Amino acid sequence: MKLSEFDFDLPPHLIAQKPPEKRGLSRMMVLYREGERIIHDRFLNFPSYLKEGDVLVINVTKVIKARLLGRKPTGARVEILLLRKLGDNLWEGLTRPARRLRKGDRVIFARDREAEIRQEGEGGKRSIEFFFPLEMELDKLGRVPLPPYIRREPLPDDEERYQTIYAKEGRSVAAPTAGLHFSQEILTEVKKKAEVIEIVHNVGEATFRPLTKEVVEENFLPPEEYYIYPEASRGLKKAVEEGRRIIAVGTTVVRALESAYSHGFSPGSHFTDLFIFPGYEFKAVKGLLTNFHLPRSSLILLVSAFAGREFLLRAYRLAVEEKYRFYSYGDCMLIL
Questions:
Q1: At what angle do helices 251-261 and 298-307 cross, to 10 degrees?
Q2: Residues 295, 250 share a domain
Q3: pLDDT digit string, tens, across residues 48-100
């Protein structure tokens, strides 16, 4: 299977640069796998697509201010995107420009706020030791980690809008964007019809890592951590036993649930490096709410596996024709 089979043309002006005025105002394309039907709707009507007894699984992870701007003692400016915590004050991060930061180099963020590069990795990765309690000061030193296709600096509104309304714990370095559409009012309507189950999947490098091999099967994803609460474990087991429909809000939830299925949804902290592409047989997830994704990405491969490649790409071409907004702050797709 070739990566080029998951490409499509996207005019740059359809890449959303800011969120809609209010949560819930996004457009929603609804795909029915049986009969390959497509409906155009609004996310405000999302609750009407749920059935009594459905289980909606959401990712309650929090996005941290993972983008750090600093300088070397020479004055050269550098940028670090935190990826994951390795130890008390040790983090793995992506650096830019990578050539400027070598092992032993110091980075200055503010007065008495410095770090040192401990190890060099591939693709701009570095392990970085911070000489201050970084997590306690991220709100002050860090910036919202907007993806690079949003071609502007973060605004004060992004601190609230690049976070789901139900975020409560964890340390994600990108938002689980399917959840950004929910307002409190819409979530309240959902709970009148469906059971809502919370899990945590910390969004990391696997979610935005470019696939580098043209042969799909030769690619891999680095592990990401997810956590199943005890009450979520009980609820998911019961839903599977009773044959109820489990609908995942976002690709992170899909990867967590499909991984958790293999160990009976046991509670606690786990890691997944599950790489889903067409041919994968879904075991837990029966419905998916997701945004429109980048071509040739692991995310479009996952959604293609769920909806069918030809059907999905036809829907994407239609989305371009109908001028849907793409990516993190864009519109959404519900696949049933």
A1: 70
A2: yes
A3: 999 999 999 999 999 999 999 999 999 999 999 999 999 889 999 999 888 88
Of 260, 224, 270, the residue nearest 240 (C-alpha): 260
| pLDDT tens per residue, range 6-43 | 999 999 999 999 999 999 999 999 999 999 999 999 99
User: Cα separation of 219 and 274, whole Å?
Assistant: 11
Give first-to-last CA distance, the chain, whole Å: 25
Last residue of a domain, one of 117, 143, 169: 143
Q: Hey, what amino acid is at 162? A: Y
Instruction: Residue 92: give its domain's CATH number.
Output: 2.40.10.240
The arithmetic mean of pLDDT across residues 167-171, rounded, is 95
Yes or no: say if 175 and 182 are a contact pair by the CB < 8 Å rule. Answer: no
100 shares a domain with 228: no
Residue 102: domain span: 67-143
Global pTM exceeds 0.90: yes
Final residue of a structural domain among 143, 177, 205: 143
